[in-house]
Amino acid sequence: MQDKEEERSLVNVENELNKRGFTQDFNVVDGRLQTIGSDSNKSYAADEVTIVDFYRFEGESDPDDMSILYALEAKDGVKGTIASAYGTYADSDTLDFLKQVEDLGKNLTKGHK
Question: Could you tell me the maximum CA-CA distance found in the chain, to the nearest angstrom?
Fold first, then answer.
């Protein structure tokens, strides 16, 4: 059994997500989620993406050095990840996009009760 710290390392989580099919790397450009480094550059609006899971990581020496890894799935079935710093070092474009995705997901959930 792995110890908790090893289990929660960013690399191990990324490897586990890769095994689950989250193989695409994403980036946010001009308010849209884009694939990185693939043959077909795809782009998605916030309403075309679902946050499947997310993982928070703290820096060993500085608790303010935090990042979040999001596992995302697009409506066309493309699955991948995007990482974002948290707090002081946050990428506002990425966080704004992910907040839109999260808010849309909450609205969908409320509508299906």
Answer: 44
Domain that holds residue 95: 4-111
pLDDT tens-place string over residues 18-65: 999 999 999 999 999 999 986 678 999 999 999 999 998 876 666 666
In angstroms and rounded to an integer, the radius of gyration of the C-alpha atoms of the chain is 15
**Rounded Cα–Cα distance for residues 67 and 55 (Å):** 8
Q: Are strands 79-86 and 66-74 parallel, antiparallel or unpaired?
A: antiparallel
Number of domains in the chain: 1
Q: Residue 106 to residues 50, 66, 90, 102, 109: CA-CA distances in angstroms?
A: 11, 25, 23, 6, 5
| Per-residue pLDDT tens digits for 92-103 | 889 899 999 988
Rounded Cα distance between 77 and 30, Å, is 22
User: For residues 12 and 32, is the Cβ–Cβ distance under 8 A?
Assistant: no
Please give the model's pTM, rounded to 2 decimal places: 0.79
Half-sphere exposure at residue 63, Cβ-oriented, CA atoms within 13 angstroms: 0
